[in-house]
Design goal:
The protein has a domain of 128 residues: Leucine-rich Repeat Variant (Alpha Horseshoe), CATH 1.25.10.10. The protein is 71% helix and 0% strand. It contains 30 helices and no strands. This is Armadillo repeat-containing protein 3.
């Protein structure tokens, strides 16, 4: 029994015949190509695997430099890639979007993308169900394209702003960076500024100020610098404790590369009396003036003076600034080594001269400093000092009677009138004769 069964199990195996493949099926073929032109041709393949690999290879090639992007453009790669951005296969769609993201950095590629009207397809890739990599490169593509006005309009009109604002809260820092950069370009247009406000983007933008990535913080600040020109936005910013965020940045030395942009936003906010009062009450105004005086960064000094100029156009703001001894800060800025800061400080003094109390305060120290600036080689500084002196001496006998001022201005007047600079000569004619010097010295 055992032998019989054993014989059956151990008997010679019969070779099973392998069925030949169907005649209409092509045998698998592996291709290794080192020519971009060959890979571009593969973008028209009906096979998803081929498409995905071709897009991946083109992405790597395009990443190597701008010349390669131009080569791909010349080979006609953009048109088939445009179709693949909306392909039903997720991997093909992802890889094609990655190529678009980096190709769009080239001017000539962007020109063709505008002609093909790709924005709608790229905006569709920002949908929540898409892969985070797709979000990254679709937003990158839009950020590149939003540099040009035509594309700004297309992105706005095709509803791109809302998904971009949603992606400000993405867990991926690259997605955040690309989205806020695109929004920054879009808000250069007033329609987008209003839409950002209506779509409640302010809280999300404020959150970006806490980012651990300086480039994200910087782009958020630059966006605020534009949108805070609108009073309605400034109100929302104040209601969302935006000023607290800005002052935290200004008070942090490690963020000194963000101080210029943060100060620009604060400057816009200071135009509103309610904001000025709030900053004064919380001690922020003293900190701001001290910050401007102590800073050694020319752009910060200049922007601080410009902020004061903007604020000083309002009578109540002038009163508050005078209470905080703004005159001392501006006189300090007149003594800096930077011509831009000197000119801006002179303009701020002119604005503050609408206040008689400020005019008297400037007369003690400001006039000698401004007289010195009349000898500056910088035309903007000279002109700013001239206008400031004209304003300081108007209807102010005590200021106008300064012997040194009269001497220096008379000399400058003669030089200006002799020369070809008729504009400044006329300015001094007005300053000395028509606006107070004659009134001040009898």
């Amino acid at each position: 029994m055992f032998g019989e069964q054993h014989g059956k199990r151990m008997g010679k195996k019969v070779k099973k015949e392998v069925e030949p493949p169907p005649k209409d099926v092509f045998d698998p073929l592996s291709i290794e190509s080192k020519k971009a032109a060959t890979v571009v041709l593969m973008l028209n393949s009906p096979e998803e695997e081929v498409l995905a690999k071709a897009c991946d290879a083109i992405y790597k090639f395009a990443s190597k430099g701008d010349e390669n992007k131009v080569t791909l453009l010349g080979l006609g790669a953009v048109e088939p890639l445009f179709k693949l951005v909306s392909h039903e296969d997720p991997l093909v769609r992802r890889n094609a979007t990655m190529v678009f993201g980096i190709m769009a950095s080239n001017n000539d590629v962007r020109k063709l993308l505008r002609e093909l009207d790709v924005t709608n397809s790229v905006i569709a890739r920002l949908a929540p169900e898409e892969d985070i990599v797709v979000h990254e490169f679709a937003s990158l593509c839009l950020a590149h394209m939003a540099v040009e006005y035509t594309s700004k309009v297309q992105i706005f009109e095709q509803g791109g702003l809302e998904p971009l604002i949603r992606l400000l809260s993405s867990p991926d820092p690259d997605v955040k960076k690309n989205s806020v950069e695109c929004i920054y370009h879009l808000v250069q247009d007033f329609q987008s500024r209003a839409a950002v406000r209506e779509l409640n983007a302010i809280p999300a933008l404020l959150e970006l100020l806490k980012s651990e990535y300086p480039v994200v913080q910087l782009l958020a600040l630059k966006t605020f610098g534009v949108i805070s020109n609108d009073r309605e936005t400034r109100i929302i910013l104040r209601e969302n404790q935006g000023l607290d965020h800005l002052f935290k940045i200004l008070e942090t030395k490690e963020f000194n590369d963000l101080h210029v942009e943060a100060l620009a936003v604060v400057a816009n906010c200071l135009e509103d009396v309610d904001t000025m009062q709030l900053i004064q009450q919380t001690g922020g105004l003293k900190k701001l003036l001290s910050f401007a005086e102590m800073s050694t960064i020319p752009d910060i000094q200049k922007n601080a003076a410009k902020a004061i100029t903007k604020a000083a156009y309002d009578p109540e703001n002038r009163r508050i600034l005078h209470e905080e001894e703004i005159e001392k800060c501006l006189v300090t800025l007149l003594g800096t080594d930077n011509d831009g800061a000197k000119a801006a400080a002179s303009q701020a003094i002119s604005a503050m001269c609408e206040s008689l109390a400020s005019k008297d305060a400037f007369g003690i120290q400001g006039i000698p400093q401004l007289v010195q600036l009349l000898s500056s080689e910088n035309e903007e500084v000279k002109e700013g000092a001239a206008i400031a002196l004209a304003n300081l001496t108007t209807a102010s006998p005590s200021n106008a009677s300064s012997h040194r001022l009269l001497h220096e201005t008379a000399v400058l007047r003669r030089e200006a009138l002799r020369g070809e600079e008729g504009k400044r000569g006329a300015l001094w004619e007005e300053a000395e004769l028509g606006r107070g010097f004659g009134e001040g010295v009898q």
